Amino acid sequence: MSSFRSVVRAVGGYLPEKIVTNEDLEKLVDTSDSWIEERTGIKERRIAAEGELTSNLGLKAARQALERAGMDATEIDLIILATSTPDNTFPATAVTIQAELGITSGAAFDLQAVCSGFVFAMTTADQYIRTGQAKNVLVIGAETFSRILDWEDRTTCVLFGDGAGAVILSSVPEDGPELGMEDSKTKRGIIASRLRSDGRYRDKLYVDGGPSSTQTTGFLRMHGREVFRHAVTNISDVIEETLETANLSIDDIDWFVPHQANERILVGTAKKIGLPFEKVIMTVARHGNTSAASIPLALNEAHEAGKIKPGDMVLLEAMGGGFTWGAVLVKW
Ligand code: UT7
Asked: What spacing in Å lies between the alpha carbon of 225 and ligand 1's midpoint?
């Protein structure tokens, strides 16, 4: 069987217009700008307008990625949308985006792994490409977490924001020539990935409603300290495993693009794995935690700032509800 690699063609992103600052939240709940900033690094977040849906955000990010790739939407044969805030329980929000893009062939589905959703979606897309089942995959992370927040609960409502990011992965033959990169140590594409989950911790970060349990949407609930306690260890372990699989070391990493939950977790992880802080892409201060959208949004910003360039070794990681966690190593 011939095999293929998944190469990043383009990235896109979209943030809703409305900015909500920590000072704005001081008027809503018993909190302070200094508490939020000291504990999380967050200064502001974007909130979707009334009627602006997860599919609207995802579509805008997807369109930007397609334009940058110089591709027609009809070249996409698979859409994987990572989200925990779909427009409706079903159909999958991915099929709405598919229809809006005018795609009538291939497949589209949602994937739900909460904040780890984008890492799970990239890994899934990679499997389709490696086995020759898909050629051009649109991987989207899009969320409207503002809709599942309890705006009276100061322990959660200050943490999250809305947004979307998208990446296009294209198939290239494993042994084929590689865009002038033949002499480099590793060819472009997804090099390795590792996914984990442990459902014993499913009550540490969850939504207290759903179609089968309460017939309501429910609100996000989190035992923040418990999640925090596991985060750095879980993330560091899965990064080490991923690097080991690729036979690479932390010194080979050019850019670290972590899920943006909390600045303290990012700093702690970078320290634990021995990565210089200049290599960490940070957006949490301006975006808050956008769950499955946070990594592609951070990738998009790093791309726009001219930081990540073709040939750079990029490490993605996330941890979230479930618990779920994972890492993806990409030669950009
Ligand atoms: O993306 C998915 C993964 N999620 C995460 O990674 C989140 C992980 N957890 C965290 O980031 C942190 O645990 C939080 C930022 C959520 C909380 O920080 P913490 O340092 O763990 O604070 P805490 O929960 O231990 O709360 C400390 C105090 C409490 O008061 P007492 O009990 O000490 O009197 C809270 O009631 O801070 C209080 N508090 C607040 N005070 C002002 C909690 N939320 C707020 C608030 N404003 N918004």
From this structure: 7
CA-closest residue to ligand 1 atom 18: 39
39 lines ligand 1 (CB under 6 A): yes
Catalytic residue among 115, 136, 262, 287: 115
66 & 39 share domain: yes
**Within this chain, do residues 159 and 35 fall inside the same structural domain, yes or no?**
yes
Give the pLDDT of residue 174. Answer: 84
Residue 142: what residue type?
A
Which CATH number goes with the domain that contains 149? 3.40.47.10
Strands annotated E in 57-129 = 78-82, 107-111
CA distance 130 to 29: 49
Type of residue found at 178: E
Active site residue 157: no
182 pLDDT higher than 90: no
Q: What is the rounded distance in angstroms from the CA atom of residue 294 to the CA atom of residue 219?
A: 20
Residue 240: pLDDT band with limits 50, 70, 90: very high
pLDDT score of 2: 66
Q: Is 295 in the pocket of ligand 1 (CB under 6 A)?
A: no
Predicted confidence band of residue 280 (pLDDT cuts 50, 70, 90): very high
Is residue 280 within 6 Å of ligand 1 at its C-beta? Answer: no
Among residues 125, 111, 131, 128, which one has the least CA distance to residue 168? 125
